[in-house]
Design brief:
Layout (H helix, E strand, L loop, with lengths): L6 H5 L7 H17 L6 E2 L6 E2 L2 H12 L1 H12 L19 H6 L5
Antiparallel strand pairs: 1-2
Length: 108
């Protein structure tokens, strides 16, 4: 298993997550991926952001349902370096209209 493919990273959960929390998060992510939400398209790992697919979410849930595979995933996730989140998308600032500022009484 690759550290970037750890089920806890794929689902964005801590190793203390209960079985119900795992199932809920998987259903939420599958719905978000189906609708094309950008927040669900990637996940943070110690190696940087990785793309997330519905198949990866289903595989992560299946791995966490198996007690042995969950234990292995917990060990790797507990001792992995801190996850590096995806860099924030650069937002373009809105254009400033000097005439509008003057009309509203702003002074430089």
């Amino acid at each position: 298993m690759n550290i970037a493919d750890n089920p806890f990273f794929v689902l964005g959960l801590s190793v203390e997550a209960s079985r119900i929390e795992v199932e809920r998060e998987a259903q939420k992510l599958l719905g978000m991926l189906e609708l094309g939400f950008a927040e669900a398209a990637s996940y943070a790992t110690p190696l940087g952001a990785r793309p997330r697919t519905a198949e990866m979410v289903r595989a992560a849930v299946a791995a966490l349902r198996d007690p042995y595979r969950r234990l292995v995933a917990e060990l790797w996730a507990r001792h992995a370096p801190a996850a590096q989140p995806a860099p924030p998308a650069a937002e373009e600032p809105a254009p400033v209209r000097e005439g509008l500022r003057r009309a509203l009484g702003w002074r430089p």
